[in-house]
Each structure stands twice: as C-alpha cells, then as structure tokens.
Amino acid sequence: MPMFRALFKSFYSLHRKTFTSTSTQASITAAHVKNQGVGRDRRHFKEPPSHDVYLSTKMISSHVENYRLADALHVFDETPLKDTVMWNLMIKGCVTCGNLDMGLRLFNEMPEKNVISWTTVINAFLNYGMIEEAKGLFRKMPVRDTASWNAMVHGFFVNRRVEEAIKLFEEMPHRNVISWTTMISGLDQHGRSDEALSYFVKMVTVGVKPTSNTFSCAITSCANVQDLCLGRQVHGHVLKLGYVSDMFITASLITFYANCKQIDDCAKAFNEEFHLNVVVWTSLLTGYGANGEHENALRVFSNMIRVGIIPNQSSFTSALNSSREIEAFDWGKRIHCGALKMGLESDVFVGNSLVVLYTKCGNILEGVAAFKEISDKNIVSWNSIIVGCGQHGQGEWALQIFTQMAKTGLNPDEITFTGLLNSCSHSGKFRKGRHLFECLTRYSKVEVKIEHYACMVDILCRSGELDEAELLVKEMPMEANLSVWLALLSGCRGPQADMEIAERAAKRIFCIDPNCGAAYVLMSNIYASAGKWNEVERIRRKMKEAGTVKQPGYSEAFVCFG
C-alpha cells in the first residue's frame, strides 16, 4: 500500500506541475508537445526567445515527459541563458530517459550547482545500483540538506544495503517525517517489520507527527507481524486525526485485520468511509479469501462491479482463487469472461489463477488453453499446469510441458519435480518417474524434499516394488512423515498386497497419529481383501474406541450472488 500511495502522489504532483501554469503560452506549448504536436511546436518555437527561460523550461519538461530527449536537449542547447532550474531539469531528464552519461556530463558542465543538482545525480547513481559512486558524491557535497540524506537512506534500502541505511539514518543531523517514514517502510519491505514498528514508536516519542503515508507503512508493518494491539492503537490515532478518508490507509487497515484473522473488523474498517476505489475493495475481497470466507469474497466482487468499480488484476486473481477454493466453476467462468473483456487473460497472475481453477474443477483442456494465453509465464505458471496435468493423469503432457519450460531457460524448483513425479505416478510412467527422481537426487540443484520421497514411494508401490519402496523409506536422509508412510501403506493394497509391510507401515503411522482415520480404513480394506475378518473387526473396534470416523464424501452447492 505505501508503494501505491507513493505512485499516486508522484502522479498527482507531476500532473499538477504539468498543467497548472500562470503562463498561457507555456501551457499551450506543453499541451502541443504532450498531444504529439511536436512538428507544429518546432515551427512555432524553433528558436526559443532568449528572454523566456520559463517557456523553454516548460518545453523541456514536456519533451522529457514524452521521452523525447533529443528534442529536449535541442531546446536546452538553443537557450542562451539557462538558470539552475533548467539545468537540474535537463539533468533529471537525461536520467529519466536512460542516458546517465549525458546527465553526468551536464552535471560536470553546470556552472553553479545547488543541493538539488547533487541530489539528482546521487539518486541517479542509486537507481542504477552504483552505490559506491553515490556514496562518493554524497561525501563531496558542499552542503547536505535533509532531502539528500533521505535520498541516500532510501537508495540503500532499494539496493538491499539495510545495515548501511540504518547506520546513515542514525548519523543524520536532522530528521523529518520523510526520514522516519523511509526507515519504517524500508525495514518492513526487507522483512524486519518488528524493527520498523520500533522506529515508528520512537518517531512518535520524539514528537514527529506522522503523515498518512507514515500511518499506512506502520499499519502494514503491524499486519506483517500480526501485532493486533499496536495496530488497534494506530487505527485509533488514524480516527482521531481524520485520516479515515484516506483510501490507502483504509486498504492497509483491511489487510491488517485480515492478517490478524479479525474478519469482522475488516468489514468495519471498510464501512468507516465509503470508497469508490479498486484498491480498497480488492483489499476486502482478498481479506475474505485469505480467511476462508470465499462466498463473502465473491459477494464483494459482485458488489464492486455493481457500484461501477472496474476490477484490476489483483481483484480478478483473488476472485478466481475464491471460486477455485469452493469449486464454484460457473462463477469462475463468469469472472474469466470479465477478464477477457478487459484484456487481462494474458496477465500472468490472472492466467495462473485460471489454470489452477480449471484444472481443479476438472477441465484440463481449459486449463491448458488458459496457460497458452499467458504472455510472460513465470515458474508458478509452469508448475500450475504441470501439477494440473498430473492430477488428470496426463503424464505425457506434463513431460512435454516440462521440456518446453527447459527450452525457455527457466530453472525448475521443488514444486516442478513434485508435479512431474506425481504425473508419472498417476499415468503409469514409472520408468520415467525413476529417471526423474535419479536426476533430482544426483544432478539437480533443487533440494530434495520429503514430498519428493513420498512421490517416489508411490511410484515404486504402483509398479509393484514394495520391498524397494520400504527400503527407500528406511534409507531416507530425513525422518519419514505421515504422508510417506501412508503412501507405502496405500501401495500394499491390490494384487501386490504385502501384509507384513502393511502392518509395519501402519504401526509407524499410529506412532505418529494414533487417530489417523485413513490408516484404519486402509488396514481394514487390506485385511478384508485377504479374508482376515477377525482383523477387520479388531480394526473397526479400535476405530470406535479411538473415536475415529471415516471422512464422509460430500458435494457442495453454491448459490450465485447477484
């Protein structure tokens, strides 16, 4: 949320500076350039009047906004008398347009530099990851204001130099609210939310008044560490200071209460002020979904459309995820249609959610089609379709897709191999499964997890190699968990049934979980297949004594809202 707020403020500031002008001629010039009327503009202002520095500055600004660096430099060069504002604007324009070398050349040629000139170049170095150059220039600054210190602190955080950011902040001679907010946000973004909150408390203690952006950052930190007590206190201050109308604070509060599992408070925060803003509505939608209230999440999605709010990619992703969780296939298709109308079917996050939705709801062909539509696939995209193919017994598809993934140069992770091994197991490709597991354990850089061993045990059991499966379980480098032993026990059913291995596996399962209903049912079925009815009765009696019941099957009807 702090990031969204910063982007919004930046846009509003740029918008205001571009279009609010005391000079009608300068405004018309800027509008011409912004509307791509550059040819006309050149004819009217081929040689800008030497006395009108302000007009030339506006022209440079407009050219830079349209990434017309050559035109901006032409106006700059043709202006004989340049003030400091124009020099600074041109340096920043070069950096914005990706020409750092030209920006540095102008900085070195600048006759009279001020603190903004130095800070602009320092920011440029930091944005390009040139930390040492930024530090060297910072040390050479004849005068450092608070903004230059803030720029360095922020740059250290952006470049993951957290300790250096903390050290520089502590050395600052003067700090303003931006300094403190930068620290809170930076620490929180690097997983040090506890420290971020301690700086927030210090800031309030020394008498610095938080801004709405500060509150938003602090609430986000409270959400990440689930500090319900402090978060409620911050919420109280927000109400007292009248920031409740700020949409970013509202969105942060909703996320905070959702993370703390206080779903009723999410709704209260949402209802404190009516917002026609997609970020606020999406926060509530996501909050409901994260707390398992998927019907309410879909109701929020329906309501936001009803009041005229256009969903964004996050809205669609959250709504699709909720549809998947309750297997509301019809709702998912309706949401998919909305995404198509907005041209979001190729978005990686929306696309990934569509793949999982269709594969979980039993439509592997639609899942593959959704996968193909994703324009810039990430590891989650590939894993989702590979796992989906495995769930539908399409091992050959999964292997072909893995081959395509390898050609892109994307490295597989542990989920990729879990999906591939499951695919081989469920489609009878046992030899390929063995080969994959061998590649994983001997050659791959991916860490072998217990899930991979469980998959391999399943493959061995399905191929009738029960002794080898039990040996693998015993020789695993980690302690076998419930899923591994259950895979072995499950494999003891059918034509290749092995009573001794089954009993040994069941014994280990009941040591881990004495009330494991699945193990009781499996053992009862194994004994029944072997005609050992006394043992079947014994198992059922033990289930009854332990209070264990067989998990019933169920179906779910979902009522569409609106």
Could you please describe the fold and organization of this structure?
The protein has helices spanning about 1-20, 25-35, 40-45, 55-65, 70-80, 85-95, 100-110, 115-125, 130-140, 145-160, 160-170, 175-190, 195-205, 210-225, 230-240, 245-260, 265-270, 280-290, 295-305, 315-325, 330-340, 350-360, 365-375, 380-390, 395-405, 415-425, 430-440, 450-460, 465-475, 480-490, 500-510, 515-530, 535-545. Mean pLDDT is about 85; it is low at about 1-50 and about 555-560. Helix 10 runs parallel beside helix 12 (about 175-190), helix 31 runs antiparallel to helix 32 (about 515-530) and helix 32 (about 515-530) runs antiparallel to helix 33. The chain has about 550 residues and is mainly α. It has 33 helices and no strands. It is elongated.
Entry keywords:
562 residues; 33 helices; disordered N terminus; mainly alpha; single chain
Average pLDDT over all residues: 87
Major sheet attributes: none
Shape: elongated
Helix content class: over 70%
N/C terminus separation: 30 Å
Uncertain regions spanning at least 5 consecutive residues: 1-50, 553-562
How many helices? The count is 33
For the CA atoms, what is the radius of gyration? 31 Å
> How many beta-strand elements?
0
Strand content: under 5%
Structural class: mainly alpha
Explain briefly what this protein structure is.
By secondary structure, the protein is an all-alpha fold. Helices cover 72% and strands 0% of the residues. Helix 13 crosses helix 14 (212-225), helix 14 packs antiparallel against helix 15 and helix 18 (278-290) packs parallel to helix 20 (313-325).
